[in-house]
């Protein structure tokens, strides 16, 4: 079994970012990312902190905007409008989920598609569906595709079964992998909570992607011998043996399936490492597209 770790692949992306950043800087341009955090959810705060830190490490202009949980929809849209007009900002990310009284979809639609480095604006999702390389693909699915590519796992002609149909992960990854070109050309099946007899479907997968949000959901009965497994899930479970009393696990029961797989991503240390790397890459690309470099 080969372990597909995220860190070394994320490093490859960061090295590319550094090269591209240096070219931009030499031409007098500084890529800028704004991250908007509403409320004080600890997990969201931690994600936003990591994004800000990575921007600074790479030398990008980083703006962190924190707003109270009771911000009105109008005031949040006004923040987006300001960032859309800000010449120093090339990428805008609104940390999800937003408090329940806010309309996430309207917020995403308000972001200038050219600055939508999270890739969730309808224009970018449309470009993804159309194989238009000028769009931005969502970061986690792009990270999964990059992991397959960098690990030398062929996708062309392979049957990929993705369990999960969220726009953020499953549906977007399906579009990426069924697209044309490198790291794509797969035959993709997308399963979800209404899929009948899931194990008989997932057992047909050459590459199985789990993006469900249920700890250890995928077990050996879901896999054929020699499958490649990409575990997108990040779930916190109780663990009295650990110092914090909990730990992170994936949607795949790693220990139970590892001997049946050709290759598998761990959790933590797998796909999760790729998301911020792809966000940095998208931000730098947004700047390049803006300045025509
Ligand atoms: P989500 O929006 O809740 O979507 C979950 C999907 O799983 C839905 O399509 C749902 O089907 C499907 N599902 C739920 N129960 C199922 C079942 N019993 N059988 C088959 N399908 C089932 O979650 P998400 O945002 O896509 O995230 C999925 C996981 O990835 C979570 O653990 C999340 O934390 C993780 N994640 C990780 C990263 C990262 O950076 N690594 C980024 C994003 C998300 P229905 O559509 O029918 O409800």
Question: Keywords, please?
Answer:
293 residues, alpha/beta, six-stranded parallel beta sheet, three-stranded parallel beta sheet, 11 strands, globular, binds NADP nicotinamide-adenine-dinucleotide phosphate
Could you explain the architecture of this structure?
There is one protein chain. With 293 residues, the protein is of the alpha/beta class. The mean pLDDT is 97. The chain has a six-stranded parallel sheet. A three-stranded parallel sheet has the order 3-2-4, with helices on both faces. Strands 9-10 form a two-stranded antiparallel sheet. The protein has ten helices and eleven strands. The chain is globular and about 50 Å long. The termini are far apart. α2 (42-58) crosses α10 and α6 (139-150) crosses α10. The protein has helices spanning 6-26, 42-58, 73-85, 104-110, 122-129, 139-150, 170-178, 198-202, 254-257, 272-291; strands at residues 2-3, 32-38, 61-67, 91-94, 159-163, 187-191, 207-210, 227-231, 235-238, 246-249, 261-264. Helices cover 40% and strands 17% of the residues. A hairpin with a 7-residue loop joins β9 (235-238) and β10 (246-249). The structure holds NADP nicotinamide-adenine-dinucleotide phosphate (NAP). NADP nicotinamide-adenine-dinucleotide phosphate binds next to α10.
Summary, kept brief:
By secondary structure, this protein is an alpha/beta fold.
* Small-molecule components bound: NADP nicotinamide-adenine-dinucleotide phosphate
Quantity of strands, as a count: 11
Rg over C-alpha atoms, rounded to the nearest angstrom: 19 Å
- The string of secondary-structure elements, in order, is EHEHEHEHHHEHEHEEEEHEH
Total number of helices:
10
Q: Which term fits the overall shape?
A: globular
């Amino acid at each position: 079994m080969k372990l597909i770790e995220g860190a070394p692949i994320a490093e490859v992306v960061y090295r590319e970012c550094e090269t591209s950043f240096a070219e931009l800087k030499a031409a007098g341009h500084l890529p800028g990312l704004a991250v908007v955090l509403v409320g004080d959810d600890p997990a969201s705060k931690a994600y936003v902190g990591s994004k800000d830190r990575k921007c600074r490490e790479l030398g990008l202009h980083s703006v962190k905007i924190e707003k109270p949980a009771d911000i009105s929809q109008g005031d949040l849209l006004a923040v987006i409008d300001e960032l859309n007009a800000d010449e120093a900002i090339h990428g805008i990310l609104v940390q999800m989920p937003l408090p329940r009284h806010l309309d996430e979809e309207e917020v995403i639609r308000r972001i200038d598609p050219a600055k939508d480095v999270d890739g969730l604006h309808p224009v970018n999702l449309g470009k993804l569906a159309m194989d238009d390389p000028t769009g931005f693909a969502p970061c986690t699915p792009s990270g999964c595709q990059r992991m397959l590519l960098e690990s030398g796992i062929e996708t062309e002609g392979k049957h990929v079964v993705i369990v999960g149909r969220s726009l953020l992960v499953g549906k977007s990854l399906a579009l990426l992998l069924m697209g044309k070109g490198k790291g794509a050309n797969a035959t993709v099946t997308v399963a979800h909570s209404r899929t009948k007899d899931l194990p008989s479907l997932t057992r047909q997968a050459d590459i199985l992607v789990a993006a469900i949000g249920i700890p250890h959901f995928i077990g050996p009965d879901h896999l054929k011998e020699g499958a490649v497994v990409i575990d997108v899930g990040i779930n916190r479970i109780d663990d009295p043996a650990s110092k914090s009393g909990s730990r992170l696990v994936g949607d795949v029961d790693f220990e139970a399936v590892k001997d049946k797989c050709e290759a598998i991503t761990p959790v933590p240390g797998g796909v999760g490492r790729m998301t911020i790397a792809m966000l940095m890459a998208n931000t730098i690309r947004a700047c390049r597209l803006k300045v025509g470099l």
